[in-house]
Write a structure and sequence with these properties.
With about 230 residues, the protein is an alpha/beta fold. It folds into two domains: about 5-75; about 85-225, 2-Layer Sandwich (Endonuclease, Chain A). It is built from nine helices and seven strands. It has a seven-stranded mixed beta sheet, sandwiched between helices. The radius of gyration is 26 Å and the shape is elongated. The relative contact order is 0.13. The mean pLDDT is about 85.
């Protein structure tokens, strides 16, 4: 957006020294549609103050300042919400397993699981418990690993949980899950006993939307591309 366009838009809202609800909405939509960068917002704020200074000598200062306050509320970039959950867990040992079980126990609406293999009965038990509580579960896993000895995948499917397997000659090697579309658990950790007892593995748990959203998008795209079992 060119500087003269910015001045024209701001000046139009200043004509009656009142930022109406419609003008506020139009300005917000314009800024969103142009994906304005923080440095551009700073420039827009600079122009708003310049226009206000021009108006102050000859107009009601209170009205001009009220307009300036309203405009700047729109032009101040939102402060990113700090994640309230940011955890890292490591194995061998119970930490990764317990973190996954805790997320499953706390889930209230839905859980989307995308893992290479599930053979740890303790995890399967927690998944089934969530299912019995009415939590909507979806599971994506590797087609080859689903048939491994000890795999819990078809037990989950037989219990009524939606399960889909990849249809590629290559492995579906992801290890992540999204809980209530707001918390992601991801890392190297397979949901197996050997991962808990023997392997050097890790998981990250976060409710940072910048991390959750891409995982949820990938899961939804993968789910849509796979036929039901």
């Amino acid at each position: 957006m060119k500087p003269e366009e910015v001045d024209g838009i701001l000046a139009a809202t200043l004509e009656d020294h009142h930022l109406s609800r419609g003008e506020k909405h139009a300005l917000e939509e314009l800024l969103r549609s142009d994906e304005v960068r923080p440095e551009e917002l700073a420039f827009f704020r600079h122009r708003a103050f310049a226009l206000a200074r021009e108006q102050l000598p000859s107009h009601d200062a209170r009205l001009v300042l009220d307009w300036l306050e309203g405009v700047n509320k729109i032009l101040v970039p939102p402060t990113p919400k700090a994640p309230s959950r940011a955890e890292v867990h490591f194995s061998p040992g119970p930490d990764c397993l317990e973190a996954i079980k805790q997320r499953l126990a706390e889930a209230s609406r839905c859980v989307d699981i995308c893992v290479f293999t599930i053979t740890d009965d303790r995890v399967a038990t927690a998944i089934l418990a969530a299912h019995r509580r009415g939590v909507k579960l979806r599971v994506v896993t590797d087609d080859d690993k689903a048939h491994d000895k000890g795999s819990d995948v078809f037990e989950l499917a037989d219990a009524g949980i939606e399960v889909r397997v990849d249809q590629s000659e290559h492995h579906m090697h992801h290890k992540f899950a999204v809980f209530d579309r707001s918390i992601v658990v991801t890392g190297s950790y397979n949901w197996t006993r050997s991962a808990a007892q023997s392997n050097a593995e890790n998981i990250l748990v976060s409710d940072d939307g910048r991390l959750v959203a891409p995982y949820q998008r990938v899961f939804d795209e993968m789910w849509a591309s796979l036929a039901p079992r």
